Amino acid sequence: MRVVVVGQGYVGLPLAVRAAEVGHEVIGYDVDSRRIKSLAAGESFVEDVSAERIRAALDAGTYRPSESARDCGGFDVAVVTVPTPLHEGTPDLRYIKESAVTLARYLRPGATVVLESTTYPGTTQELFAPILEDGSGLSAGTDFHLGYSPERIDPGNAVWGFQQTPKVVSGVNEASLKAVRDFYAQLVDTTVPVGSPKEAELAKLLENTFRHVNIALVNEIAMFAHHLDIDVWQAIDAASTKPFGFMRFTPGPGVGGHCLPIDPSYLSWRVQRELGQSFRFVELANDINNHMPEYVTRRIADLFNERRRSVNGSRVLLLGLAYKKNTGDARESPALRISQLLLDMGAQVRAADPHVVESLPTDTRLVRVDPTPEELAAADVTVLLTDHDGFDYELVAEHAAFVLDCRRRLPAGPTIEVL
What we know:
With 419 residues, the protein is of the alpha/beta class. It has helices at 12-21, 33-40, 51-60, 94-104, 123-136, 174-185, 197-227, 232-239, 259-275, 280-290, 292-306, 334-344, 373-378, 393-399; strands at residues 2-6, 25-29, 63-66, 77-80, 86-87, 90-91, 112-115, 145-148, 167-169, 191-193, 315-319, 348-352, 367-368, 381-384, 403-405, 416-418.
């Protein structure tokens, strides 16, 4: 089949390459010309998709990245994997709308369109479908198949990749569900059908809201435990030995990526708009997790105060800019907020991250460095924000003057304090 994947980011690229590997003719459409040029050259910016896989698909002629909407023509299946950010607390669905307008021009009877972008329940049928229908003159469920299948990409997960992770699928009717399920069954080991796109949309938000709330809980416990002089990490270790009724979550400097800082707010927004009620769990979790960078910055300032030093003029080395270990994904990363807060306080901030290679919306005063013994020794405080396996932790422990370890990766010692 001719497959169009709209969006070639962390979600769209693994899907496109996998579809090409099973033999489909895939167009990877993206409006980012720099990204398309890199992909056309066989370069990858996603850890889960190697450059070798991209080059193999290019050489086989089954994958073609393109920034031209005309290349979307003639598709049998189109999958939309575009970002859905928040704008002033409100879902920003412009990329979904633009994708629907583009695909509608090339929509043919019998084709299948699937939305994967995370969004609030009702988007597929109430927003996405009408745009496709108005632009094509065709009816969803009658003339073409339409469904929703939430993405479950976990960057850097070596066990649960795109193919191994069960795929939730849905359709606006039985025929659409069958078409959507048949397509994904060629790409993944397991498909999980649900009754309608609304259930599939809610399932995605439920997954991420569950994580968001539990991370907020353990972050707040960690803050209280520090002031109560209790080792929260030992408590978590102990609780984790219970073989039932407990799931391990650990503290950190905040949440990042697209999922946790944004997705639960889609559900909260929908509940408020449709029911006029507050989703208190989400709002509380947002408040706690969003303020973790400020808490980490206060802890850094406390370390200086204890040594009768000022943050202003001091040198701080941040280890890790990505929001998640062993990935180059810095979207909504708490490290960016922490660096900005420290810079505004007058600190000389330097940062090391071997995975983050794309340009970042960071302050130009932030200096990128390698974590050499000299850099570690020159820093007044080193802050471990992302525990990449590629960092040499023995080197850090040996040469850093003092460390605030936000991930409990370093051995305990007099010069190492854990979040």
